[in-house]
Amino acid sequence: MFRRTALTVFAFVALASLATLPAHAQTALDEVMAKKSIAIAIPTDFPPYGYVGTDLQPQGLDIDMARLIAAKLGVAVELVPVTS
């Protein structure tokens, strides 16, 4: 009996904590829209996903996706280079 009650309480707490996730996601989107820019981390050492081209500019699939996301949101993109 105790085990069933404990499991029920645990399930309720787990579901209650999930209820706050959409509210946080909306807050992050509001913050991006208010700043009119989004910072996205991109790899600089993992071709073809991200690398530095001969013109010393970031290139690759992840960079293209970051720019597409920013364009769809209507904000500027700030590419933050990272290494894997």
Cα end-to-end separation: 50 Å
Low-confidence stretches: none
CATH topology of the largest domain: D-Maltodextrin-Binding Protein, domain 2
Order of strands across the main sheet: 2-3-4
Order of helices and strands: HHEEEEHE
CATH architecture of the largest domain, please? Answer: 3-Layer(aba) Sandwich
CATH-level-4 superfamily name of the largest domain: Periplasmic binding protein-like II
- Biggest sheet character: 3 strands, antiparallel
Share in β-strands: 25-35%
Shape: elongated
Number of helices: 3
Q: What's the CATH class of the largest domain, please?
A: Alpha Beta
- In percent, how helical is the residue content? 40-55%
Structure report:
By secondary structure, this protein is an alpha+beta fold. Helices cover 54% and strands 25% of the residues. The chain has helices at residues 2-18, 21-35, 61-73; strands at residues 37-43, 45-46, 50-52, 58-59, 76-82. It has a three-stranded antiparallel sheet with strand order 2-3-4. Strands 1-5 form a two-stranded parallel ribbon.
